[in-house]
Amino acid sequence: MSGATTPGMPGLPALGDLTWTPALDRPDLLAPPVADALRAWAALDDRVGGLVAVTEIDPDHADTATLNDLHALPPEASANCVVVAGRRGDDERVAACVVTATTFADVNTRVRKLLDARKASFLPMERATSESGMEYGGITPVGLPAGWRVLVDSRFAAPGALALMGSGVRRSKLLMPGELLCAMPGVEVVDGLGVTR
What we know:
The protein is of the alpha+beta class. It has a single domain (18-190), classed as YbaK/aminoacyl-tRNA synthetase-associated domain (YbaK protein). It contains six helices and 13 strands. Strand 5 (79-88) and strand 6 form a beta hairpin. The protein starts with a strand and ends with a strand.
């Protein structure tokens, strides 16, 4: 990655060939819960306005591998967000797990233990979208329901790491420094959340 920065956002490195804009300036490119959460977060952290960007994409190219190939994006910057539910008796515990595209969430071991659950599995798509207010393929850790835990792989805390993720809708993507994602209210940074294939 070069030392170039995103036009209009000098604190954010340029990424791929996409055009980035401050996310707070384009709520039309965000799912309503995401826009609300970003505004609330910006009121607590001055960095959000200048370091959280959004870009419009073709929703047919929202899949991580396709998007990365088409726009020359580094896979290690792509943050995949999967929603997992664990059970212990009648008690259900839900968590969003954010890992790099070069890894996958260790649901059956690491996530299950973190949820203190006997069993863990991916939340059905219909529930994940209806309860989050986000579109399938666009679910992001920003703006999730208050009862859900947000687990973020510690790789995003590394110096210079970026987090390219969903915006709540399939027709755009969010970008922010990984360290800012790790500092988002409610985030739990977890070592070894993502495991290599």
